[in-house]
């Protein structure tokens, strides 16, 4: 139970740090991990799934080993307080909810000022879409979809793995998510090499995505709409995790997501999520941000309660 209290306090402090401070402005550990992963790719790259699997395994193991060693050292030198501070620092580093919401609201401000070109310039901070082909409503839709998906990736999923495996679990989840963004796409260079990272990201993101969809239904303006859109449309999305999250957000907010989009000069025609909803407008960005904030807060409560329950059961078994 003592270890769980340390973990719980660290998660709460880290979440508070993200709310108050946002992402670290300099020397972000995730950026450092990305540079190390890119250097490893230059050495290990082969047009083969096995080479990509080795790259993924080494990078994730390196992140977990570093955080585990840091936690043990802090506990040895400063006891439970030191371990709590490490958990808080890792949580703050891994969570990205505040940065996500700030970037989304920056685009919303540009759209409200009728500065569509400025909104297009800001959009790459949120997603990899080609912004020049988008009008104001198209930019707004891209932002709402990015807020939905990244609420799962940058907040809820990390908290789920933190509850399951502490700071090392959070580090592993962020490492996998970062590798997927770097190599887990269908470019000629990464079609085979990035296969392992993409599949591992799908598996790691599965529980967080479902929890995000449930919480979006509970916290949104239309729980019934969220559940209906999730049930009807999530399965048609090409991503097994983005589908439930984006469908639930679409139904909760009463808007349509999905449709035609462009990545790297390649046009994709994705199924519409929540066909009963209306087209996204610029005002919907603020609504999506509010929903994302509520989902993040609820996720902290749920994962903390789940961790406490698990720790209590372990204590009961140990006392028998």
From TrEMBL:
One of its GO terms (cellular component) is plasma membrane. It comes from the Bacteria. It is found in: Cell membrane. GO terms for biological process: cobalamin biosynthetic process. InterPro entries: Cobalamin_biosynth_CobD/CbiB. Pfam families: CobD_Cbib. Pathway: Cofactor biosynthesis; adenosylcobalamin biosynthesis. GO terms for molecular function: ABC-type vitamin B12 transporter activity; threonine-phosphate decarboxylase activity. It is a multi-pass membrane protein. HAMAP family: CobD_CbiB. Belongs to the CobD/CbiB family. Converts cobyric acid to cobinamide by the addition of aminopropanol on the F carboxylic group. This is Cobalamin biosynthesis protein CobD. The lineage of its organism: Bacteria, Bacillati, Actinomycetota, Actinomycetes, Kitasatosporales. The gene is cobD.
């Amino acid at each position: 139970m003592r270890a769980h209290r340390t973990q719980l306090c660290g998660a709460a402090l880290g979440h508070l740090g993200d709310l108050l401070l946002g992402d670290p402005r300099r020397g972000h550990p995730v950026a450092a991990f990305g540079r190390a992963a890119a250097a490893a790719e230059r050495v290990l790259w082969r047009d083969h799934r096995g080479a990509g699997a080795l790259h993924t395994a080494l990078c994730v193991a390196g992140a977990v080993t570093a955080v585990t060693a840091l936690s043990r050292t802090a506990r040895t030198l400063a006891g439970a307080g030191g371990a709590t501070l490490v958990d808080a620092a890792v949580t703050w580093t891994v969570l990205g909810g505040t940065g996500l919401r700030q970037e989304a609201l920056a685009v919303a401000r540009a759209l409200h000022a009728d500065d569509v070109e400025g909104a297009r310039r800001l959009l790459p901070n949120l997603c990899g879409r080609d912004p020049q082909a988008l009008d104001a409503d198209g930019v707004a839709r891209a932002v709402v979809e990015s807020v939905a998906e990244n609420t799962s990736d940058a907040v809820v999923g990390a908290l789920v793995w933190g509850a399951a495996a502490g700071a090392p679990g959070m580090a592993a989840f962020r490492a996998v998510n970062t590798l997927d963004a770097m190599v887990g796409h269908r470019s000629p260079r990464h079609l085979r090499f990035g296969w392992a990272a993409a599949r591992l990201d799908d598996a790691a993101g599965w529980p967080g995505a479902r929890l995000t969809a449930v919480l979006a239904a509970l916290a949104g303006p239309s729980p019934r709409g969220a559940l209906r859109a999730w049930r009807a449309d999530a399965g048609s999305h090409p991503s097994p995790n983005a589908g439930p999250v984006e469908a639930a957000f679409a139904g909760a907010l009463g808007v349509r997501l999905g449709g035609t989009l462009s990545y790297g000069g390649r046009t994709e025609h994705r199924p519409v999520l929540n066909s009963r909803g209306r087209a996204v407008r610029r005002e919907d960005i603020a609504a999506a941000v509010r929903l994302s904030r509520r989902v993040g807060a609820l996720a902290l409560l749920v994962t903390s309660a789940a961790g406490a329950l698990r720790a209590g059961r372990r204590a009961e078994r140990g006392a028998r």
